[in-house]
Every structure is written in C-alpha cells, then in structure tokens.
Amino acid sequence: MSSSLKYILYLTVLHLALGVLAFYLLEGDGVYVLLAELVLLGSAYIAYRIYRSIISPLQLLGRGAAALEDQDFSVKLLPTGSIEMDRIGKVYNRMIDQLREERVNSRQQEEFLDRLLGAAELGVVILDYDGEVSSMNNWMQRQCKNVEGFHDAILGPFLHLRPRPETLSSEPDDQATAEVSRTDQVITGPGNRRYHVETANFIDRGFERGFIIIQDVTADILSAEKEAYGKVIRMMAHEVNNSNAAIISVLRSLLEAATDGEEGLMELNQDYLPVVINRAENMTTFMRNFARVVRLPNPDHQRTNLNDLLRRTGDVMTTVLANHNINLSYDLPETEVIVRADAAQLEQVVINALTNSRESIGSGGNIHISATRFPKGFIIADNGPGIPASATQDIFTPFFSTKPTGQGVGLTLTREILEAHKTTYQLSTEEDGWTRLRVTF
C-alpha cells in the first residue's frame, strides 16, 4: 500500500471517529454539533493542504523517478507551493534539462562519428570481448567483400588476441598484458598493397575490448620511395651522362685519328677502344633505363579496348618468343572489354611481363594471355620455374631482381604504371605451378 493511500485512509478513519464521538458527546446541543462539524471540515481541509504539500510532490517525484528509469527526460515537476518540495523540484528540473541536453549532444556526436567513419577512407573494426569482429565501418566492409583474401591476411592475425574479459579491479596475468598491448605495424596485403594496422583497447562497461584501425598507405610509401630513388637516379644520371659524353667523344676522336700506318693507334683501335666505347654506351643506356622510371608521365586515360591491346602487343612479341620455342596463346572474351587507360603505358606493362616470362622460361614453354569482363582485367601466365619463395615478399620492390645481372627496372616501371592507373595487381607463382601477373581495373 502506498504512503498516500495510507495517509488518506488514516485521515478518513480519524475524522469519522472524531465525528461520531462528537455526535454522541454533544447530542442534543445543535450549536456544538455544528461547531464540531465545522472544526472537522477545517481539519479535513488542513489535511488536504498537507497532502498537497507533502504527499502529492512525493508522487510527482515518484513519477519523475519512473521517467528517469525509462530514460524519458521530458517529464518535469510543477510547483506545489511547498518551499522545501519546490526547491527539490527545481533541482530535479535542472537535472532533467542537463540530462536531456547531454543526451542530445551525445546522439549528435554519435551520429557525427558514424558518418565520419562511414565516409573515411580507412578501416575501423570493433572487437567483442572474445576478440571476434563486432562491427566495422563501410570502407572495411567493402575491402572484405571486394578484395579476395583481405580478411584473412589483414584481420586474421589480430583476431582472438584479446584476453578474457577482466574487470577493472582484476589483475591480468602477464600473458594477457602482452596480448592487449598496443601494436603499430605495416603489413603487405593482397595485390601488394601496404596497410598500416594499429590495434588498441578501450574499456566498455568495466571490461576491455579491442579495436583495429587499418589504412591503405601504399600510395604514401610508393611516393616516398619514388622521391628517394628519384633524387639518387637524377644525380647519378647527371654525373654518369656528363662523364660518358666526354669519354665517348674523346674515344671516337681517337678512332677517327687512327690510321693503318700508325701501329700503336691501330692496335688501340682493334683491341681496346671498341670495348671501352661499348662499355660507356652501355652505361649510358643503363642510366637511361633508370631515368625512365623517374620521368614516367601521368597516364592519359582514354577509352581502350583491352582485347585489342593485348592481342596487338602479344603479336609484336610472337617472333621473339618463337625463336625461343615458346608458344603464346590467348583467351579473350568475344565482346569488348573497355577500360579507361593509357594504351602506350599498358602496352609497356604487357611487354615487360612477356619479356620476364620469356627470360624465366628460357627455351621451350608456354605463355597464356587472358582477359576478364567481370571484373575488368587481364592475366599473363607462364609455366616457367616460377618465383623463388625467398623473393616472394620483395616482388615489386624498387629495382629488385632475381636475375644475376638484372636491374629490376621492368617490374619497377610496371608497378609505377599500374599504381598510376589505380589497379589491383599481383605477381605470384600459384599452386598449379604457373606464374601469373593479375591486373584488375
């Protein structure tokens, strides 16, 4: 039974008892009976006022508490006339206004953060208490859906590394402390993309949970690499070309001055000068190849039929491949595969890939060129000995080569062109033994 009901019941019984008692005691004296009734009515009115000033505000506070329990911040207390209760009511109303304002601000911030994370070009993954994925933003969902192997390669190593939930007052063991420590590293993912992965923890209702932030830093790393080796190459090219130009000029002058009657110059002509000139010219060519990477212009994107480009570029190499007893085959869609690309630069990519395949095979083998419409792209495959396992992680590293005398210019140039076209690409020896360059637009 509520306090208000008890209060009303008590007053009702009390006034009824007093009324009956006054009636019997003052029976026969009408004036005193009337006076007693007036006193009882005054007492009832005073009781009602006390009820309004004490019990009614308490009921209002009860309704306010129920509203707080339901997280309804719209209920406010009205003045009751009681100084003490009105003071409590003012404090309650201020608290309600503050809670409502904080709730509105909190929802606005949550909405802002949701939109920000949804539009950000980086991945945010929230883990649950068991280290499983609880939620992720739009960018991360697209990567997991569209990039094959992305989830296992990038997220896989960081799942299940959270310790069992521990309260703030608990003392985690040494292993748990090591597992929840902050990590920050760069990982090579599918398509030779570089991802900066950062993991950390936060406290949710007294327990630790983890989150992962993933950012594609491929463009930044490649830009820094290109700027670094570009400066070195330009400096080397300047010095080597200037020196070689002078050396070659002097040597040619000596050759022109040599005559049959001058035995010393004749011997120099036959035995030494051609070799020196050849080496100087090779050095110039060597530096020119490096300079091509640095001076690569921005692609001129035009409507390009990928089928025609692959066919005509492969036909250019047919004679060279035939001389090494290498068979070149095609598997191109019957309908056009249209991409926006710089045809001349893509032809260079195909030529570099075919050249690498020919050098890998040596003599007697197969090269296969294919294209796909969904997604748009092409594959160049060969059945050569493949890429050594020790070199897998270094493919497309600037100027890296598995050939004893290789300069690594071809793959570096290929990487720069494909990055400029914003493609996804991968070069690897697969389980069937074939080495494939996969390019997807």
Blueprint of the fold:
Layout: H1 3-25, H2 30-69, H3 83-119, E1 123-127, E2 133-136, H4 138-146, H5 150-155, H6 174-179, E3 183-188, E4 194-204, E5 207-216, H7 218-257, H8 263-271, H9 273-294, E6 302-305, H10 306-323, E7 326-331, E8 338-341, H11 343-361, E9 365-373, E10 376-382, H12 409-420, E11 424-429, E12 435-440
Parallel strand pairs: 7-9
Antiparallel strand pairs: 1-2, 1-5, 3-4, 4-5, 6-8, 9-10, 10-12, 11-12
Helix pairs in contact: 1-2, 2-3, 7-9, 9-12, 10-11, 11-12
**Strand arrangement, largest sheet?**
2-1-5-4-3
User: Beta-sheet strand percentage?
Assistant: 15-25%
Taking all residues together, what is the mean pLDDT?
76
Radius of gyration: 43 Å
Helix/strand order: HHHEEHHHEEEHHHEHEEHEEHEE
Count of helical stretches = 12
Key terms for this structure?
five-stranded mixed sheet; Beta-Lactamase; alpha+beta; 441 residues; single chain; 55% helix
Account of the protein in words:
The chain is of the alpha+beta class and 441 residues long. The chain has four domains: 3-106; 120-216, Beta-Lactamase (2-Layer Sandwich); 221-294; 302-440, Heat Shock Protein 90. 55% of the residues lie in helices and 18% in strands. The protein has twelve helices and twelve strands. A five-stranded antiparallel β-sheet has the order 2-1-5-4-3. A hairpin with a 5-residue loop joins β1 and β2. α1 (3-25) packs antiparallel against α2, α7 packs antiparallel against α9 (273-294) and α11 runs antiparallel to α12 (409-420).
